[in-house]
Amino acid sequence: MPVFPMPRAKRFKVDRLEMYLEDQVQGSGPTPLDDTLTSLHWLQDFSILSSDPEWPSGPGCPSSQEQLFLRRLGNDSPSSLAVGDTAAPGMAQYLGSDSTVGPHPRIQEQPIPLVEVVYKTDPKVKPPCSHASLICMAMQASKQPKVTVSTIFKWITENFCYYKHAEPSWKNSIRQTLSRNKCFRKVPKQKDEPSKGGFWQIDSEYADMFVNGIFKGRTRTLRRNNGFQGYQDTARTSANEDVSPEQKPLLSKNNRRTTRSTKTPLLATKPDSMRVDILAAALEEVLGGDCSTLEDSDLNAALRSLECEMEGMQEPIGELGRWWGDVMNQQLSYGYMDLCVTTMDGTGNVAELQTPQHYLYQHQDHLNESSVSGEGAEVKVDTVTVPPTLDPGFGLSEGFFTATCDHPPPPTLTVL
DNA sequence: CGTTGTTTATTGTTGA
DNA sequence: TCAACAATAAACAACG
Q1: Quick check: A66 and A128 in contact, CB under 8 A?
Q2: What are the Cα distances from residue A159, in Å, to A41, A164, A184?
Q3: b/e for A230-265, b at 16 or more Cβ within 10 A?
Q4: Distance between CA A3 and CA A315 in Å, rounded?
Q5: CA of A196 vs C1' of C11, distance in Å?
Q6: d(CA A147, CA A145)
Q7: DSSP H helical segments within A27-124, as ranges?
Q8: What is the predicted pLDDT for the residue at A66?
Q9: Pair A361, A157: CB distance under 8 Å
């Protein structure tokens, strides 16, 4: 049973609100909710979703962040207006504003500002995927059998605003990844090909290391031979201090730095939002974000995942992200929203979610109260009924997840 | 000279 | 806790 220490919850909540307000002041905050910014048409040509929604678990598999990220990429988000599609750009979005299907009466309705994560337009949001994944995506997006490094750079900067404004050292990392990772193969340039450098492509032998563009390989993917030593933890195994100067010529010769400056503060400073993504991924499955997984068994798995991830979270659910279902025109499409804060108190209140739009909660007041009292909060997912029945023919089209929905019954999620 | 590609070192993260 | 991996930084050579 996950227990969230409330003082930390309070602190987290305050931090998130400050971040939100800061973003608003700086003009980079809640992105105007128009399709140009919220939709992921930019990845329209990017086929990434597999028909198998389940990723393998364990080492060598995409992280939860990457999985969620992948889902985001794989789902068009024209319906990123969270509730009712009524807000004009710039307007605050509030959860629970749909008067037709209100939240459970025992849930206190609270306005919850929404903050979007838009990788293409927000320079502060670093995509939670590895460089190998970025390379793979760029390669797939190019639709060419081989691409140049500059093409990869161009695609990344065009599609991830973070890298457009980041220190150029990331390019070095990309090049290094290309060189070191044997999943990528260098293709010599022909004489009549003008560009500098060679081409790169995904080695067919290792193509299965990429699941929908997300690199899932780890242990067996590195060029450990061929003189490459980069991934050997020489610094730890030999502790460097114990290594003679002859054994560490670069250190002695160049007097390299001994401390590492983190120039990518985003991940370092926003771990909470990232971790919340994990929960979002689970909730997404529970509530229909990824309807392809909503069979009973998978639902249970999703719930277990949810419980598991929440147990792993030291912080409360400071922010929840999910794909909102849009049942318009019997099409399910999804847009991502980050929701600010909520958690459950330990009062035994039951929150029954009646639609995908009415999602978990609302207990900011309880959060505050608990914060004062220092009591822990417990969250228990009790019962769930399966959300929309999907046409088994739902499928993938140009990398987008669409699902026909003949009769979308209201999903219910009871939270104790 | 800028780009490309390789290599080494260091530090942070993650999973067993 | 530790090993493996990812990310970052830097140096350097080759090339156009």
Answers
A1: yes
A2: 11, 9, 21
A3: eeeeeeeeeeeeeeeeeebeeeeeeeeeeeeeeeee
A4: 9
A5: 21
A6: 7
A7: 35-38, 64-74
A8: 57
A9: no
Q: What is the C-alpha to C-alpha distance for residues A227 and A236, in angstroms, rounded to an integer? A: 19
Identify which of A137-141, A287-291, A307-311, A326-330 has the greatest average pLDDT. A137-141
Dihedral of alpha carbons A81, A85, A89, A94, sign: negative
Cα angle for residues A267, A149, A132 (degrees, 5° grid): 40
Place of tokens 């990457």: A66
What is the separation of C-alpha A348 from the centre of its chain, rounded to a whole number of angstroms? 31
Report the candidate in A313, A303, A309 with the shortest Cα–Cα distance to residue A271.
A313
Nearest in space to A12 (alpha carbons), one of A379, A307, A314: A314
Report DSSP state, residue A357: T
What are A334-346's pLDDT values in tens digits?
222 222 222 333 3
Q: Helix axis angle, A271-287 relative to A6-26, nearest 10°?
A: 100
Q: Which of A410, A379, A362 is nearest to A105 (CA)?
A: A362
- Distance of alpha carbon A122 from alpha carbon A125, whole angstroms: 6
CB contact at 8 A, A273 and A400: no
The Cα A356–Cα A409 span in angstroms is 10
Whole-number pLDDT of residue A213: 56
C-alpha A95: how far from chain center: 21
**Predicted TM-score (pTM) of this structure:** 0.44
Q: Which of residues 159-188 of A touch strand C (CB under 7 A)?
A: 167, 169-170, 172-173, 176-177
- Chain C nucleotides with an atom closer than 7 Å to a protein C-beta: 3-12, 15-16
Q: How many angstroms separate the CA of A244 from the C1' of C11? A: 20
d(CA A83, CA A362): 15
Summarize the confidence of residues A90-119 as an average pLDDT: 37
Rounded Cα distance, A79 and A388, in Å: 17
Residue nearest to nucleotide C9 (CA to C1'): A169
* Token pair recorded at residue A224: 């450990």
Cα dist. A94→A13, A82, A356 in Å?
17, 8, 15
Nucleotides of B under 7 A from a protein CB: 2-16
Which residue minimizes Cα–C1' distance to C10? A256
Grouping H, G, I as helix, E, B as strand and the rest as coil, residue A272 is helix
